[in-house]
Design a protein that fits this description.
Blueprint: E1 3-7, H1 15-25, E2 28-32, H2 39-46, E3 52-55, H3 63-66, H4 70-76, E4 82-87, H5 98-114, E5 119-123, H6 128-135, E6 141-145, H7 151-160, E7 163-166, H8 168-171, H9 174-182, E8 188-190, E9 198-199, E10 202-203, H10 209-220, H11 224-243
Parallel strand pairs: 1-2, 2-3, 4-5, 5-6, 6-7, 7-8
Antiparallel strand pairs: 9-10
The structure holds manganese (II) ion.
Residues 6, 8, 85, 193, 196 line the site of manganese (II) ion.
Length: 251
């Protein structure tokens, strides 16, 4: 049993084939969407198969292009258990839209807060400190995906009560492995970010979390099987917290 806590099933060319393989392998998957409009169609791909959950997302890179879909987000939020991907992106191409990104992110997390909190898959490229500051006093369970912030930012995110999903693409770099070593074992989950996530030039599929498990086991100096069990235990705990009403941040 393995977990992919952040991938984009609807964006694989052969998404039905991918879903078949996920089922065959018994993987647990969080299928995150990049726009609110994509949510219902993406959820429909998996029917009521319960090991694949669909998250209502609004990617920060699309904030300036799709802002009007915020109404769809608001409409759908009461019926979803998972939100993401959401967040901020401070990279060169998107910095110019910082204000609209921030407006959207604030709106989304306040809605989440007013609806009792949710698991949120969080994008924070070159903006971790801003994301962390906005998440203070917001009810919910943020899971930073592919965290690339500084060690100080990581400490602040940990103090906030955040969780982290890491994948092969992140862990192939030394800085990614340095971050991994500092993440509390109880707050760690695995992901691929496929089909965006790549490893040695190849698109990652949800079952490629195996590669992340290997790298985590290496870092922890644990057996592969114990590492897998720990990640699944963590996931079960996150789901339990998400299902208990009025979930709150730890810090
Ligand atoms: Mn993503």
């Amino acid at each position: 049993m393995n977990l992919d806590m952040h991938c984009h099933i609807d964006l694989y060319k052969n998404h039905y084939g991918v879903i078949e393989q996920i089922k065959k392998k018994g993987l647990y998957v969080l299928s995150v969407t990049t726009t609110p409009k994509a949510y219902l169609g993406t959820k429909k791909l998996v029917g009521d198969y319960n090991k694949i959950k669909t998250a209502l997302g609004f990617h920060p890179e699309l904030a300036h292009l799709r802002y009007d879909e915020v109404d769809i987000f608001d409409l759908l939020l009461p019926q979803v258990k998972y939100v993401g991907e959401i967040g901020l992106d401070g990279s060169a191409a998107y910095k110019q839209y910082a204000n609209v990104q921030l407006d959207l992110f604030k709106h989304i997390i306040r809605k989440v807060h007013s609806h009792g909190g949710r698991v949120m898959s969080i994008h924070s490229r070159l903006s971790a400190q801003y994301v962390i500051n906005e998440l203070r006093n917001i009810d919910g369970l943020p899971v930073f995906h592919w965290f690339t912030g500084t060690k100080d930012e990581l400490r602040d995110a940990i103090n906030l009560g955040a969780w982290f999903s890491v994948g092969p693409a992140m862990l192939k770099s030394r800085s990614g492995r340095e971050i991994l070593a500092l993440i509390p074992k109880d707050r760690l989950l695995t992901e691929t970010d496929g089909p965006f996530g790549k490893f040695n030039g190849e698109i990652l599929f949800p079952w490629d979390v195996d590669k992340a498990i290997e790298l985590i086991a290496n870092c922890w100096e644990w057996e592969i099987k114990d590492t897998k069990l720990k990640i699944m235990d963590n996931f079960k705990e996150l789901v339990r917290l998400n299902n208990s009403s009025g979930n709150q941040m730890i810090g």
